[in-house]
Amino acid sequence: MEKKPILVILSAGKVIAKLPFLSSLSDCPALVPLGIKSSLLHQIHFYEKKVSKIIILTNPEHVSEIYKELLPELLKKDKDFFQIQGCKTKNVNKTLQFFCKNHSIKNTNSYIFNLSTSLPSNFLKKNSFTIDKKKTIQQNWSSIILKKKKISKIFYRKNIEKKLSNAFIGIFRIEGKKIKKIAKNLKTDDQIEILESYIKNYKNVNLNFQEWLDIGHSANYFQTKKKLIVSRNFNKIRLNDFTGTITKVSRNLLKLKNENLFVKKIPNELKVFFPRIVDNRSFEKISYLEMEYCAYPTMAETSLFWNIDKGEWKKCFENLSNILKKFKKHKFFFSKKAYINFYYHRLIERVNKYINSLDKEYKSLFLENTIRINNKNLNGYINLIKKIPKKIEKIYNEKDFCIMHGDFCFNNILYEPYTSTLKLIDPRGSFDTSNNSIYGDQKYDFAKLSHSAVHYYDYLIAGKYNFFKYKNSFNYNFLEKDNYKLISEECNNQIKANGYKIADIDFLVGILFLSMTPLHSEDKLRQKVMFLHGISILNKCV
Length: 542
Description:
By secondary structure, the chain is of the alpha+beta class.
């Protein structure tokens, strides 16, 4: 079996030099926000099963940031799989030379070098260099011109000729003995010199053509974000750059039908908060929903990566609160039976499904009357579930029934912080899913907002947490960003300003976390932390 290559991610420098518009919490080029994951995590999740080791070279001041970003990944891997090293280098070729001088490079080993600002879509074979499959007018990047599938001309980044050419992506795979020889003689700060030197020394070169997912140039960053939306939702989402629309595709005819009906049914004064529906149709058991595409980041991305000041966050939560106040003007009624069914019976059904998926050890521990979490003995699920119905009945309030989004979390709120523009996406609507109603309990919308802003839901999804198990005891914590306290306080302020008790909202949040566990079966560790977190929250409320 062929030995797996070693991956080297080149991440020196600062992102502000390449993306001046990006108001990021970090200026590390490996931590550029792409949804709720950094560019580094996108790269690692592509390579982790294909390489034997990952080495990350970055500025010394960024080492601790990258370590925090990778902490959940470090827990899953062998201790030697990741190596994070600081280097005071001024450009990518100097970083490459630093690697060659400071690492024991074996001649026969194969190494993949990947710029932190280029995302891979193909896994390279030996002695290959990646080239953009699409010809574009050269801007501030290096590129090549091909004739009869061979390189006829190389353009350095500083020698812009504005000709149609194929960009050099900055990902290549090369043997140890070759990279040592090439790196020794590099004279420029342009990585394409490596390709040019390889051709001079070794003649034949394998060119790998792939789509350029570039986040290192302001001209390409937003296009790459759009492409990632499509690639992550293959056969589910289509983007039309010309019309500025996004089309959802699903075999779940009812889901898209209900989303369309929700936007149609809400009063005109509320339609402005949702993307405009362009078309809705079904064909051969597939449903299509075309709507206006809004290129704002989600609040999940904004909270985890963006450097937004206190005044902007305050304005954001005030705007969200004002939207919910408009929702509350439109009253409805649900019986106590329907209310209990939505919260309690769904909780029982979903938790049972999750518990039955566990191995014998965890199933036993999670069904104990008491459970030890973060050095405290707490009521376990079996004890809590006896108290929950009474608490649900206690918070039943007919005055709280109104228009309800149904999934009012950060990931479904698009927010442009500089203009304070908000758009709501993916509405679920009512308690009564059989009736296509747009109404429900407003406390549920506030609970969804709180589970993102206060209770770390997006940290869980982004993998920003620690988890340890020792015998029958569990410990977990979240890797808080500097803005966490500010965001959580603004959320709680608006909950109280709308007349709700924090304890009641937190109670529903605890139920939410327990109910969500079977929906995250792709990540077993996340499920466990989600369950434990729900138990911890409920112990403070019942």
